[in-house]
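Following up on my earlier message about P-hydroxybenzoic acid. Here are the inputs again, as you asked, copied directly from the submission form:
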Amino acid sequence: MDVVGPLERGLAVLRVMSAPGGHRMRPSELARATGLARSTVDRVVATLVHLGHLREIDREVELAPPLMEPGNAYLAGCGIPDALGPVAERLADEFDESVSVAVPDGDGVRFVTQITRRRTMSLAFRIGDLLPAERCAPGPIFAAEWDEAARAAWRARRASPEHFPAVPARPAVEAEEFDRRVAHAAADGWAADDQLIEPGLIAVAVPVRGPSGHTACAVSVVSHTSRHTVASLAEATLPRLREEASAMEAALARVLAERASGGPGAAAAAAAGADPARTAKRELGPEFLQSLARGLTVLCALDGTRSLSEVAESTGLARATARRALLTLEHLGYVEHAGRDFRPLPRVLELGYAHLSSLGFAEIVQPHMADLVRRTHESASMAVLDGDDIRYVARVPAYKIMSVDITVGTRLPAYATSMGRVLLAGLPHTERAARLAGAGPRPITGRTVTDPAELAKIVEGATEQGHAFVDEELEEGLRSLAVPVRDGAGQVVAALNVATHAARGPVEETLAALLPPLTETASRIEADLRAVTRGRRLRLP
Ligand code: PHB
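Thanks, got it. Here's what our run produced:
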C-alpha cells in the first residue's frame, strides 16, 4: 500500500495531542510521544500551524478550533446531528434528562450529539468521545448487527485492553453478560446501561435506522440512580423514544436525500478552488509538508459520500493526489470506500474534536485577545449587549497602569462605549432606536454624546464603517476602538475592543495603528466560533 508518509505522521501527531493531557505540548514531548524524529515533528508542527489546526504559544503548541473542520464535514455529511438534533432537544426538555446520539465506530460507540442536563456530579461525554460497546446503552444495539469479523475484533480488543480515555477504568465486563444484553437488544429493540460507566449513571437507548435499514445511530436518555432505576427510566421514556424514533428515521432519510441530490455540500464548496498547499509551499519551503496539507484538505472536503472526481474537483487537487490521500485515510481508518465512492468515518472525530467542542467562549477568545495585546500593547476586551448596558465577558489587560478598572462582569452604558455602539449597530433599526431612547443617555464626561438623534447617527456610522471609536466620552483621557464579532449566521454576538490613552497621539494615527490588528483578530475569533458552533448554538457567557 502506497501510504502518504507525511499525512500518516501528521495524523499521528494530532492523535497524540487529542489524548487527555496532550492538548498543549512542547515539540520535544511530541517527538517522544510519537516516536518521530524531532526534525519531522518540527515540520509537521510548522505545517499544522500554517493551516491553523495548531497554535504556537510560548514554546508549546496547542490544538486550535479550525482542526474541527474534518469532524464538522463528517457530521454534516452523516446528517445525524441536523436530522436528530431538534428532536433530541425536545426529548431532553420533555424528560428533563440528558439525551445523546451515538454512532457505531468499530467495536466502540462514538457520540455525535449531546444535550446535557446533568444536575449530579456525574461525568458528561462530549461530541467525539468514544465508549467501549460493552459499557454503555447503545453498544448492545450496535453489536446486534455485528458480523463474525466484528465480534472477533471485539474479543481481540478485550483480550489486550486498549484504553478508552473518555471512561474511567473498570474491570472488564464478562463476555456472556454482554452476549445476553445483545440478545435482549435484538429481541426487544432497546438496551440499558446500569452503572457500567460509573456508579449512579444509568441510560436507556433505542436504535434509529438509516435508509438502508441498518442501525445508523442510537438515542440514549441518561439519568442517575438518585432519580430513577433502569426499570423506571425505561418505563418513563421508552414509549416516547420509540414514537420519536420513527420520526427521527423519517427526518434522517429526508436530510440524506437532500444531501445526495444537492451535490457537494458546504464544506466542499468552502474548500473549492486552487490547491492552497501550493502557495504555502512557496512561502514556507521544505518546512511545509504539502502532502499532509492536501490530505487534511481532502478530509475537510469529505462531507458525505463523494466520488474521487468530486473530491479532486472540490479541493483543486490532481486526481492521483486526491486518490493517494483518500487511500491513506482509508488505511488509517478515517475513510471508507465502496466502488468509486468515498465517505468519512466517525473516527475522524478522534482528531481533537471532543476537546475542542467543549471549549467555552472565554477559552476560545482568550488566546486571540492575548495576541492582540502583544501586538498593540493595549488592553483588549470583549463584551455583549445586556439590556441597555454592555457586559464584559473577556478581558486581557496590557501590562501598564490603566485608569479604568474593568473586570469580566463589569457593566457600562452601551451608548457611551465603542463596544456598545457596534453592538447596537448589529440590532435591527427599530430595536436600536428603542434602546437608545430607553437608555436615558446622560453626560459622563464633558464629551459624552447624549442626544438620541445624534447617537442614532453615530450608531448608523458604526454600521457603515464596521467599527466604532469613542474619544473621552466615557472617561477623560480614554479612547476606545471596537469592532463587531459575528457568529456563523452573520449575527453580531459580541464586540471586541482595544482601549488606549488620548496621550498616545493623534486620533488618525491611533486608528491606523489599532484598526488592522483589531479587525484581523475579530476575523480569527469568528473563524474559531464558526468551527466550534457548526450546527450547535453558541453559548455566550
Ligand atoms: C451519555 O450520553 O452520556 C451516555 C449515553 C449512554 C450511556 C451512558 C452515558 O450508556
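One observation from looking it over: The mean pLDDT is 92. Hope that helps, and feel free to reply on this thread.
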